[in-house]
């Protein structure tokens, strides 16, 4: 998500705002590069639950505390996913920037109760049928093709030429899309545009094209099912109709592509800028797995997620949350909550982070495992093929995308010894 609001100064709340005058806009250049400072400031000023203003000064609550976020995501009867509960809809215009992420859609993302369990159960079983060894082999093949395309030049911009493309192609392979043709390349491009549009792109048109191609894919798998995620969803005894499958496939593809791309790139940045991951005290490189896990704690690809909506008036972190209030999940802030990391030491050696969320609406098993296969294979293959990889700029020259929602670099330029194919 991109944020286009005004600078991050305290602002007077809009009519009906649940927050007091200290609410902070989730926007502004000062926080885009160092969001950790935003979370520290909000926690110091407001505690574990902070009043914030979304684009257009629309009020919401940002959950910063680890235990509070676990409480919200673990109590669907209090904080539910159906955004039609929102008490701010009268203030939302048709061109509101966050509308694509908040407007109710007939997908698993907004389903609740038995309907959510039905839909997520289909996705879980479809993903569980993916052979992780086959996925790793396909990712190595894709990685090899991408690396070969720039290996001879001695330089590359890894975000656009590698990190974004690999998970998109891998997840489309899982879904049964034919590989290598112009049809797949166009879909990969449209996925990037719809999720992370650059200046001059038309994300709405790109999203429409993605939907049409996925509808065509579902129709093809109805006629000729195979050993892929789409076919398993089509054949599942729950009997989802075509449009339900289309909506849920788009959710799966979107969740796999951009966050995994940022996970890959953020991990490469860590490996290339932190001396701990160059050579440790015994002369060996710390593992890629440790770097991947540390990124999930400290630079998680999904910083904040919108959201949950209060089913009734309730208390959270000492705040009165009114029925219909929007609650934003501060995943990155919760991961660095000083209540779970005393003395400001974040130990990346465990996996109790909230980067894949928590509760019934977390990323369905085994999606995190498949994302790990894609990210780990991408990073390891690149380092194996280009072992002398270095940054082409100083570390402080790297810039982050202007968003408080996603954590990803604008680019990752690198240099290496050209490889003659």
Automatic annotation (TrEMBL):
What family does this chain come from, according to its entry?
Belongs to the cytochrome P450 family.
Annotated SUPFAM superfamilies: Cytochrome P450
Q: Name one GO molecular function term.
A: monooxygenase activity
Name the PANTHER family for this protein: CYTOCHROME P450 YJIB-RELATED, P450, PUTATIVE (EUROFUNG)-RELATED
Instruction: Please report the organism this UniProt entry assigns to the protein.
Output: Streptomyces minutiscleroticus
For this protein, the record's Gene3D superfamilies field holds:
Cytochrome P450 (1.10.630.10)
Return the protein name.
Cytochrome P450
């Amino acid at each position: 998500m991109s944020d286009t609001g005004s600078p991050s100064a305290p602002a007077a709340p809009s009519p009906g705002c649940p927050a007091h005058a200290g609410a902070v806009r989730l926007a502004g250049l000062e926080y885009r590069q160092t969001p950790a400072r935003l979370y520290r400031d909000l926690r110091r000023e407001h505690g574990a639950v902070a009043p914030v203003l979304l684009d257009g000064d629309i009020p919401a609550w940002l959950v910063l505390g680890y235990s509070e976020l676990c409480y919200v995501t673990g109590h669907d009867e209090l904080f539910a996913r159906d955004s039609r509960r929102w008490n701010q809809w009268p203030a939302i215009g048709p061109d509101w920037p966050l509308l694509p992420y908040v407007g109710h859609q007939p997908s698993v993302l907004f389903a609740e109760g038995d309907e959510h369990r039905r839909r997520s159960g289909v996705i879980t079983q479809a993903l569980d049928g993916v052979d992780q060894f086959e996925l790793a082999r396909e990712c190595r093949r894709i990685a090899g093709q991408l690396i070969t395309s720039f290996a001879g030049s001695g330089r590359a911009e890894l975000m656009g030429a590698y990190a974004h493309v690999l998970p998109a192609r891998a997840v489309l392979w899982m879904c049964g899309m034919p590989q290598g043709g112009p049809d797949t390349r166009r879909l990969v491009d449209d996925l990037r545009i719809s999720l992370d549009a650059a200046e001059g792109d038309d994300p709405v048109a790109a999203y429409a094209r993605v939907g049409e191609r996925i509808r065509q894919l579902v129709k093809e798998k109805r006629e000729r099912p195979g050993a892929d995620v789409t076919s398993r969803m089509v054949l599942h005894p729950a009997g989802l109709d075509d449009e339900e499958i289309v909506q849920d496939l788009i959710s799966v593809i979107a969740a796999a592509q951009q966050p995994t791309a940022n996970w890959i790139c953020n991990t490469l940045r860590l490996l290339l800028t932190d001396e701990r991951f160059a050579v440790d005290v015994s002369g060996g490189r710390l593992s890629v797995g440790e770097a991947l896990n540390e990124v999930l704690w400290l630079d998680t690809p999904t910083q904040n997620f919108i959201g949950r909506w209060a089913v009734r008036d309730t208390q959270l972190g000492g705040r009165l949350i009114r029925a219909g209030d929007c609650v934003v999940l501060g995943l990155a802030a919760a991961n660095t909550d000083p209540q779970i990391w005393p003395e400001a030491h974040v130990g990346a050696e465990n996996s109790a982070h909230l980067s894949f969320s928590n509760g019934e609406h977390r990323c369905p098993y085994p999606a995190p495992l498949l994302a790990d296969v894609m990210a780990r294979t991408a990073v390891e293959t690149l380092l194996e093929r280009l072992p002398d990889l270095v940054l082409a700029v100083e570390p402080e020259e790297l810039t982050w995308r202007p968003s408080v929602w996603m954590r990803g670099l604008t680019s990752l330029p690198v240099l290496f010894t050209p490889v003659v194919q």
